[in-house]
Design a protein that fits this description.
The protein has a five-stranded parallel beta sheet with strand order 2-3-1-4-5, with helices on both faces. With about 290 residues, the chain is of the alpha/beta class. Helix 2 (about 115-125) packs across helix 8 and helix 6 crosses helix 7 (about 235-245). The chain is built from eight helices and five strands. It has a domain at about 90-280: Rossmann fold. The longest helix has 23 residues, at about 155-180.
């Protein structure tokens, strides 16, 4: 059979070309010389037997022996402290701090839809003089794309399971931020009539040192702010009114409450600083 692309190439020429192959023997100066013995020129990286020095004239890198320790890693791995539950601030230490806003703290900002908690939390975290992270439970809950259980379609087992999963994820993130010296503020609509799902869950996932603060403007303000929202963050007026009515149960709970009905975001964040300074010195009982 003829080759489709031309005559076949000749086989490699060498001193041991078999007789009768049909190819003329190569001249002596073109024949492939025999490879040098290993002692004459070891391949870089090939280990030599223990005690055998490199061959004379070898200028390559020193051979690696199996017993040589591996190089020490200097980049690419930073050991992070594990995130343990947040403990209650020591009253003596907190009192001795001239400016409690410099302390590493974990804050839970509670409020109904339209209270402005995400806006205030983001602003407060972004204007502190120490590293601070903002964690929005709604943002984490919406990480689920396919199969998202939208509470607007009705609160059921699926929506509650995704809420609990998001809260546990937020708690894990908060503990890790705090363990590495970064304060955090989490915002969530926690109902006072559901202590196991609400504050009890946050205490389990973050720790007893979490500082809860309630942001509760008047109903008219909440309805107005909710009307400016879009997507699944915007709720029906009837649902907003129902949530706001339940949030009123925080009055008398002992938790600090900020009415930001007539306050802008910057003023609300400064008041939040003052409230937290008192909570650090004398943590609320919850």
């Amino acid at each position: 059979m003829h080759d489709a692309v031309g005559a076949p190439l000749p086989p490699p020429q060498g001193p041991h070309q078999p007789a009768g192959s049909g190819w003329p023997p190569a001249p002596p100066d073109q024949a492939h010389p025999a490879p040098p013995p290993p002692e004459a020129q070891p391949h870089p990286g090939y280990p030599l037997p223990p005690g055998r020095p490199p061959a004379p004239g070898w200028t390559g890198p020193a051979p690696r022996h199996p017993s040589a320790p591996p190089p020490v890693e200097t980049t690419g791995h930073i050991q992070l402290p594990p995130g343990d539950p947040v403990s209650v601030p020591d009253a003596g230490v907190a009192s001795a701090v001239s400016d409690p806003s410099h302390m590493t703290v974990a804050v839970l900002l509670i409020g109904p839809a339209g209270a402005g908690k995400t806006t205030v939390a983001r602003h407060w975290a972004g204007t502190r003089r120490v590293p601070t992270a903002h964690i929005s439970l709604d943002d984490v809950r919406e990480w689920v794309r396919s199969g998202f259980a939208d509470p607007q379609s009705g609160w059921n087992d699926h929506s509650e399971a995704q809420y609990r999963l998001a809260r546990r994820t937020c708690g894990f993130a908060a503990r890790n931020f705090l363990a590495n010296g970064i304060s955090c503020i989490v915002d969530d609509a926690v109902f006072p009539d559901r202590p196991v799902v609400g504050l009890g869950g946050w205490k389990r996932h973050v720790g007893p040192g979490l500082l809860p603060v309630v942001l509760l403007p008047g109903l008219e303000i909440v309805l107005e702010r909710n009307a400016a929202r879009s997507g699944n963050r915007r709720l029906a007026d009837e649902e907003v009114a129902m949530i706001h009515g339940k949030m009123a149960g925080w009055y008398g709970s002992g938790l600090p409450i900020i009415d930001n009905s007539q306050l802008d975001v910057d003023t609300t964040a400064r008041i939040l600083d003052d409230v937290l300074a008192r909570s650090i010195v004398s943590p609320p009982s919850w």
